[in-house]
Design brief:
The protein is an alpha/beta fold. The longest helix is centred in the middle third of the chain and has 25 residues. Bound molecules: thymidine-5'-diphosphate (TYD).
């Protein structure tokens, strides 16, 4: 049994903090857990991340580079870890491309589906935790960040479209997702995560 779990949400939803806690909770149960992220997760992927987060580019280029980094990530990190019986928890995966490049930037959804089919026809997360939060709340949380990347600098309407993109993905395949109300307090979210960890089937 392997588990590939992804964390998703708009910038400011709080997913990264919760991911660290979730991974620790699984490790305490004795599981071997690999924590990784996108874009990134490999040496080449981290170089692409640097470019993607800082360098203005064509929307199509942005989508292709996201999936290029993802291909490396899948082949070098995700699949080997799953084959070795480890759990993999990734801070973002393809849902983010549909939400940000599809929803946010308006890139054709079908093109993204084609890239997904090409890059990982036989792999999907077993479970995706989607941290859903009203955009005003997410924006407030980002306010204290000293340096915002190219995505975080976008306006509220961009993030409304990103959020709608995530909702569309959830509607298309609801059984893969748990939607978490990330406007709640950190403690309330943690309680919800504890329940999820208890309810995961470990056989
Ligand atoms: P993020 O995961 O929010 O990292 P941090 O918490 O360090 O800021 O940053 C990644 C950014 O990349 C985020 O704004 C969303 C964007 N992104 C895409 O636009 N498409 C993708 O496919 C992925 C994986 C990320």
């Amino acid at each position: 049994m392997n588990k590939f779990i992804t964390f998703e949400g708009v910038d400011g939803a709080g997913k990264s903090t919760h991911l660290a806690w979730f991974a620790d909770a699984l490790r305490q149960r004795g599981f071997d857990v690999v924590v990784t992220r996108e874009p990134g997760g490999t040496p080449l992927g981290e170089q692409l991340r640097e470019i993607l987060l800082n360098q203005p580019m064509n929307i199509g280029t942005e989508a292709l580079l996201m999936f290029a980094a993802r291909l490396e990530h899948i082949e070098q990190v995700i699949k080997p870890a799953l084959s070795a019986g480890k759990w993999v928890i990734s801070d973002r995966f393809s849902d983010a491309s549909f939400a940000y490049q599809g929803g946010g930037r308006g890139l054709d959804w079908d093109k993204l589906s084609q890239l997904e089919q090409w890059v990982h026809p036989d792999l999907q997360p077993d479970l995706t935790l989607f941290f859903d939060v009203p955009i005003e709340v997410a924006r407030q949380r980002l306010e204290n960040n000293a340096s915002l990347d190219r995505f975080e600098q976008e306006q509220a309407d961009f993030f409304e479209r990103v959020r709608a993109g995530y909702h569309k993905r959830v509607r298309q395949n609801p059984q893969r997702y748990i939607v978490i109300d990330a406007a709640q307090s950190m403690d309330a979210v943690k309680l919800k995560l504890e329940k999820i960890i208890t309810s995961i089937r470990y056989e």
